[in-house]
Write a structure and sequence with these properties.
There is one protein chain. The chain is of the alpha/beta class and about 425 residues long. The protein folds into two domains: about 10-75 and about 190-255 and about 345-405, FAD/NAD(P)-binding domain (3-Layer(bba) Sandwich), CATH 3.50.50.60; about 125-185 and about 255-345 and about 410-425, D-Amino Acid Oxidase, Chain A, domain 2 (2-Layer Sandwich). The chain has helices at about 10-15, 40-50, 70, 85-90, 95-105, 105-115, 140-150, 160-170, 185-200, 310-325, 370-385, 410-425; strands spanning about 25-35, 55-60, 75, 130, 155-160, 175-180, 185, 205, 210-215, 220-225, 230-235, 255-265, 280, 290, 300, 335-345, 350-355, 360-365, 395-400. Strands 1, 2, 8, 9, 10, 11, 17, 18 and 19 form a nine-stranded mixed beta sheet that branches. A hairpin with a 2-residue loop joins β9 and β10 (about 220-225). α2 (about 40-50) runs parallel beside α9 (about 185-200), α2 packs across α11 and α6 (about 105-115) packs across α11. The longest helix has 19 residues, at about 410-425. The chain is globular. Bound molecules: flavin-adenine dinucleotide. Flavin-adenine dinucleotide binds near residues 37, 67 and 371.
Length: about 425
């Protein structure tokens, strides 16, 4: 079995309201829809369908939010991280592309609605997102973002260096893209809150209930766990990077890439880091994104180097943070550091797979899963409502193995981005950044 990063180190598990989910599936149950996986994709789907009065059972192998959903860095940036909006339209076709774009671009606002409607305690803050321009050469790419996102209905803008400093406290930037819709949160709080909301609407949720197989029996599915089973008309797999033997070869539809997240000890409000409580992205290839949690910790995420343990990771995070905020002490104290897994595949937008009649799976979110989990939840709910496949915001494809190069491609691309950053810094006559 694949080994995942330990969840015990994750800050959110300690700071989110405790989980109320203890029940393990035993014996036999029936539902219309059985969802496998208790992350954002599965939970949004369960909540939507349960709210409509559909009978839903969700099975989670470990605990609610065990996967990326409970251990991410807590940035909710309603954008696409790799593609421009026009590339999405080209990739999916005008109609489907536009549908996906509208879901994704409005995801943070819709999650805010869900948080308020269900009174979810998850440190939700929607004060905006700032992607900085570390060299003057970055500004034209950021202006294109302003143009395309605003043409799609958003109200973003290009800020000058002084405004970026005021919003983020970051020194030495040349401006930045400000997206007022960006938010941040405690992701385990959101996961547990979505689960509670789904349960209040009648969904059955079971933890420590790993699905071992699903078999078609007549017109229905029998979904088995080690101690019980669910008979359902439809099965939806949302097991992501944390897939455990759920469906043959589902875990081959992506490759793993590790991300690290560090949280400092709580710092006083007076410190010049994120005075406006926005989410900040330093605009570099190996993205460094950070925010403050409800207790004043700085929570920062980045891709770690291939080799090197805890000390090396913390050094990397410290150097980046101090470069942007020289007033921070040289020995920043870190409260916790954890890593987690992303399900990478070449397209980077989620992939919806047809498994057999009445059974689908989504994997390959490739990061940005806080808004994307909401988006996928809408697509899966539409599928469960029998929406014609051509009208779904994601195409349904046969399950396929991701190419082998995805084992090393994203790492190589990262090194390529770092070299591009170095070259831009050198060309614009700047000091090399850490
Ligand atoms: C360290 C880290 C930092 C990140 N930071 C951010 C960020 O700041 N912002 C952002 O938008 N995105 C971020 N992401 C990405 C985001 O968290 C993920 O893309 C998203 O949470 C994936 O959601 P999911 O529902 O697809 O899968 P998951 O949340 O991984 O859920 C899948 C669930 O399925 C369960 N499961 C697996 N197999 C079985 C089985 N056989 N039976 C039953 N259950 C099973 C797993 O236990 C797991 O709980 C980050 C990811 C990581 C790892």
């Amino acid at each position: 079995m694949r080994r995942f990063s330990p969840i015990g180190d994750v800050l959110w598990r300690k700071t989110a309201p405790p989980s109320e989910f203890k029940e393990v599936l035993s014996g036999h149950r029936e539902a219309e829809i059985c969802i496998v996986g208790g992350g954002f994709c599965g939970l949004h789907t369960a909540l939507n369908l349960a709210k409509e009065g559909r009978s839903v059972i969700l099975l989670e192998a470990e605990e609610i939010g065990f996967g990326g959903s409970g251990r991410n860095a807590g940035h909710c940036t309603p954008t696409f991280h790799h593609y421009s909006l026009n590339s999405i339209r080209r990739l999916l076709g005008e109609k489907r592309g536009e549908k996906l774009i509208q879901l994704q671009l409005n995801a943070a606002d819709r999650i805010a609605d869900i948080v308020h409607e269900h009174n979810i305690d998850c440190e939700w803050v929607q004060n905006g997102y700032v992607m900085a321009a570390p060299t003057p050469g970055n500004l034209s790419a950021l202006q294109s973002k302003v143009d395309s996102y605003n043409a799609a209905g958003q109200s973003t803008y290009l800020a000058d260096a002084e405004e970026v400093r005021k919003l983020t406290g970051m020194k030495g930037q040349f401006g930045g893209w400000v997206h007022p819709g960006g938010a941040h949160l405690n992701p385990m709080g959101l996961s547990r809150g979505l689960a509670m909301a789904a349960r209040r609407h009648g969904a059955g949720l079971f933890v420590r209930s790993r699905v071992t197989e699903a078999r078609r029996t007549g017109r229905k599915w029998k979904v088995s766990t080690t101690e019980g089973s669910v008979i359902a008309k439809r099965v939806i797999y949302t097991t992501g990077a944390y897939t455990q033997a759920a469906w043959p070869k589902l875990d081959k539809s992506f490759r793993i890439m590790r991300v690290m997240v560090g949280a400092t000890k709580p710092l006083p409000d007076a410190i010049d880091v994120l005075p406006e409580n926005v989410t900040a992205h330093d605009g570099r290839g190996n993205i460094f994104v950070y925010k403050r949690d409800a207790f004043g910790r700085i929570v920062a995420s980045m891709f770690p180097r291939l080799f090197g343990g805890r000390e090396k990771m913390l050094r990397l995070l410290t150097r980046r943070l101090q470069y942007h905020h020289p007033s921070l002490p040289a020995d920043i104290e870190w409260d916790c550091l954890w890593t987690g897994e992303l399900d990478m595949q070449p397209l980077t937008i989620p992939r919806l797979y047809h498994l057999e009649e009445g059974a689908v799976a989504v994997t390959g979110l490739s990061g940005r899963g806080v808004p994307t989990g909401y988006t996928v939840g809408q697509v899966l709910s539409d599928w469960a409502r029998d929406m014609p496949h051509n009208d779904l915001a994601l195409p349904i494809e046969p399950l396929r193995r991701t190419p082998l190069y995805m084992s090393f491609g994203p790492q190589l691309a990262l090194r390529g981005y770092e070299m591009r950053d170095r070259f831009s810094e050198w060309r614009s006559g700047q000091k090399m950044r850490p």
